[in-house]
Amino acid sequence: MKTLLEIFVVSTRLGLTSFGGPVAHLGYFHEEYVRRRKWMDEQAYADLVALCQFLPGPASSQVGIGIGVMRAGAIGGILAFIGFTFPSVIALLFFASFLHIFDVSSAGWIHGLKLVAVAIVAHAIMGMAKNLTPDLQRRTIAVFAMVFTLLLQTTYTQIGVILLSGLIGYLIYRQEETVQEDLKAAVRFPLSRKFATISLCLFFGLLVVLPIIKELTASNYITLFDSFYRSGSLVFGGGHVVLPLLEREFVPTGWLSEEQFLAGYGATQAVPGPLFTFAAYIGAVAYGWQGGLIATIAVFLPAILLVFGTLPFYDALRRNPKIKSIFMGINAAVVGILIAAFYNPVWTSSIFAPIDFAIASILFCMLAFWKLPPWIIVIAGAIGGTLQSFFM
């Protein structure tokens, strides 16, 4: 019981203070769990991070869940998730309620938050392109993924692009030495393979069953849960990449406007914790705080099930170069998908005049070159948008 309470307290403190996105979160985790508390050694942490980078979903949250699992089993993983996630969920539920009470659709600071989204996504593209497309083949995959995602804007385009890119990655890289790495001792996790198999069956089963239940019941809450569960299951590359999937899922259907969507995305940058908590905001705008909680559970449930389902098998997976080759193709496609999202809806809904481009450029420089924390970028964007509305 003492261990479980310790996991919850430590993860909650991280959830209240971990600004800066997934890469920064991994740094916070390393400092807290490896250096200070010595809950695991460097190699175990590196192995866990490598696994979560290969899984769909929010990588930093999955690492936190995995650390909780390694410390105290499945319950430890769930408590680590709750502590790290719910501070930002609560903050975004309050923000969504504020938008419900006050009509701020034409407010200058809302437009400023949309310009923040331009800077944030542009910065994410730079970092991901450098890491995930280092050679000509993967850059080519990224370009074609961008083209198909822009020209064929359907619900299934992104899924098809990811599957095709994984196949191309397998064909190109399955024999390459770049997918090999030095392997040390096997990593042990306190979950049985039987429990892992059940978790994986539940993960895939919900993907199949939820759309059927949605058609049979016509319940708004089931529809909400299905949409967010699918989004959480199919997003490779972390929180920034969930943007296009959620935009195409909820904006065309009228659940929220383009302005509300991008304002919420900008606000998400101002709170600590995982970017996937953006789901709480969307759910709350659509159906109040109950919708926000349902959306949060739905978008993170695939990540939890995948961590539970893959940890016991990870040692075998990391020794398989063919598996790694598939993910090399998928990760390249993620870059192209994010570039497509940067154009539409982020750019087309935010940049209307030279002053918009100027403000977005300053915000980008503050983030990428001056290395200021994201919450400062959000405040600066809101101030810039407000000033623009007064003088334009």
What does this structure look like?
- α5 packs across α15 (354-368) and α8 (193-217) packs across α9 (220-234).
- It contains 16 helices and no strands.
- The longest helix is centred in the N-terminal third of the chain and has 43 residues, at 59-101.
- The chain has helices at residues 2-17, 22-36, 42-54, 59-101, 108-132, 136-151, 157-173, 193-217, 220-234, 242-250, 258-268, 278-310, 314-317, 321-347, 354-368, 374-391.
- With 392 residues, the protein is an all-alpha fold.
What's the quick description here?
It contains 16 helices and no strands. By secondary structure, it is mainly alpha-helical.
Strand content: under 5%
Overall pLDDT confidence: 82
What is the approximate shape? globular
Instruction: State the major sheet.
Output: none
Question: What's the Cα radius of gyration?
Answer: 20 Å
Helix content: over 70%
Unreliable segments of 5+ consecutive residues: 178-185
Number of helices: 16
The succession of helices and strands, N to C, reads: HHHHHHHHHHHHHHHH
Measure the end-to-end span.
Answer: 59 Å
Tell me the structural class: mainly alpha
